[in-house]
Amino acid sequence: MAKLIYLTTASLDGFVEDEAGDLGWTAPSAEVHAFIYELLRPVGTHLYGRRNYETMAVWQDWPMEGQPENSREFAEIWRAADKVVYSRSLAAITTPKTRLEREFEPEEVRRLKASAERDLVIGGATLAGQALRAGLVEECHLFLVPILLGGGKSAFPRGARLELSLVEQRGFGDGRIYLRYRTAAAR
User: How far apart are CA 76 and CA 62, in angstroms?
Assistant: First the structure.
């Protein structure tokens, strides 16, 4: 069975965006980009909420010619993956290999994991929070940025308790720390 992986970037105080919704502080170095690509290359399916999908959909039509190697590489990885978008408000999807679901149904995600040949990654703190609460996430991959935001959207759902076991850690030249945890659902 494939694993469901929550992969996110967060501030040291645990936020994925600041109080104004800004994500500019999350921009990774080339070293971090390369590491993230290695994590994403074996993933077969990306699960997104509407906002995350709309942010990522630009990679479908990203002009490849004349772009830096890391941009071309990510566009290729993103285009190759299947995508599932969970949204009640999105009128239609705009990218190939993508399907729209109106509701996040934990049992449907369990079936998707059971039938998948490759791992799945879930993006967006709100959607990941639903999956974490449902016990669907086997691993959390966190990239901690050396910044304190003091508020914003939390990387993890409020009130949720989850036992984690550290599997891997790595530091990067830009001060980021990568932490990979296995959840109780994976044990």
Answer: 10
